[in-house]
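Instructor's aside before we start: the two examples that follow are unrelated to each other. I chose them only because their records fit on one page, so don't look for a connection. First example below.
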Amino acid sequence: MRWKRLIGGSLVVGAATASLAVGGANLWISRGSAGDRYAVADAPTRPVALVLGAGLTASGAPTPYLAYRLDIAKQLFDEGKVEVLLVSGDNRTHSYDEPTAMADYLVAHGIPATKIVRDFAGRDTYDSCARAKRIFGVDALTVVTQDYHLPRAVATCRALGIDAIGVGDTEGRKYADAWASGSRREKLAAVKAVWDIRTARDPILGNRESGVQDALAAP
């Protein structure tokens, strides 16, 4: 019976520790993003919008969630809230190219190609924020994603030294199951975000790129 008590006690301690980690991480994210989330009409101006990837369909087009993000980025651009759109996504295989699909969507919807910059190594939120700062030299931006994801995205970018605000999509709520699943997943993703920041994990790096500065200078 003693070993059963020991196992039971260990499980209780483990569950309590995990609960504290999740709760602490989410509190940090809430505080780190407070006051920095806006609707398009109310958003302060920033030079760059960072649009985070959200998957492609089997045909290679943006998923509905990604299309909603891109639509917000277009609104920000059209209203003069941002000058350049930095589209950051996954391109780890030749057959899967989120940034190019994102750029093609924006061009098809009237955004000049000269005002779009592609980041091909934005494999997750942390990587996209870190690369915006370290590879593309961005110091201030508006991050665009789904509303439930926005606190983590803003807090992560700000923790990495970027003057970040955010505009979140709410159209995706019509996909109720996906929205609920994403919201639940955010609770655990907060722990990874805090770990990445505390350990200063390096994303995929490379030479500094002038694409954002070139796009800002383009007429």
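Example two begins here.
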Amino acid sequence: MSTDSQDLVPITLTHHGKPHTFSFPSDATISNLSDEIADSLSVPPSNQKLMISKLGLLKPPFKDPGLSISSIADKKITLMGSTAVEASSISEASEHASRRVTRQSRPMQKVSAYKTHDWKKEQQEAQYTFTTLRPLPYLPNPSKSLQFLQRLKDDAGIKASMRKHKFTVPLLTEMNPIEHTQSNHEGTSRTLGLNRNAGEVIELRLRTDAYDGYRDYKTIRKTLCHELAHNVHGPHDRNFWDLCKQIEKEVEGADWRSGGHALADEEYYGSEDVDDHGGWTGGEFVLGASGSGGAASTGNVVSAGLSRREVLAKAAEERMKRLRDQGGENAGSGSG
């Protein structure tokens, strides 16, 4: 790369609310920026997520590692990710608090063999997890929804799979059922999960349509496996389904519990297939294959310029039309 001072390109990004400026030769790439972030800010590549205006969320290893620094010099760049020290501190603080509570609650007893802690595993679980859990405060009993989200976060199978694939999701939240349900004379279509910007936000349908209970835990967990696969693959192509099935097997295999159970006294309903219309990027839904001009589409349904509700309605209409053309088999089902 050229090192002449007149060829240096300044790059400014924001991390934890503070701006940081770096200078690169004009032929530098986004991979060089990632290396500089690791060296200067101590945020390892596995923790880095770069939100770049007009380009969306990019993270190492980049789909285009040769992306020129000059092409993003004038764009707003936000770095999301914890330093190795921060991740380690959170894990150590949690461990110390847990041991203190355990000592205070148990009676005095003879000294027994001390169980060795897997510090590496615990640090990874503190890093590869859901950073924030958020129920919808305007729906009934948000504390029960928070309890459900916490159970998903603590699920042994989910933790093992997120650790294996190095998934960090900043926000896990619930969706409002009424905003993601479409009904017509042929049946009812329910969206069970959404993934925004390759894992920036995951929404899950926790509640029944009438808000009078919560859905089956294993169905919700299966939906979460589906949405985690969208962290890597947006469209429902073969690569996506292979990863989705892999995550489901990992979650089932690592779940040492006997199975799902009801939260408090709420009623749970039967399982169903996951329906989520694919990944959601930049405020719009990616419904499948890419259409012309960058508009996301599926069949004849194009999402450019439409609201989320309109996109879901059109997608449901198109799915019903395809089912009618095929003889009406499985009409109204919730397959994604």
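The two ends are 47 Å apart (CA to CA).
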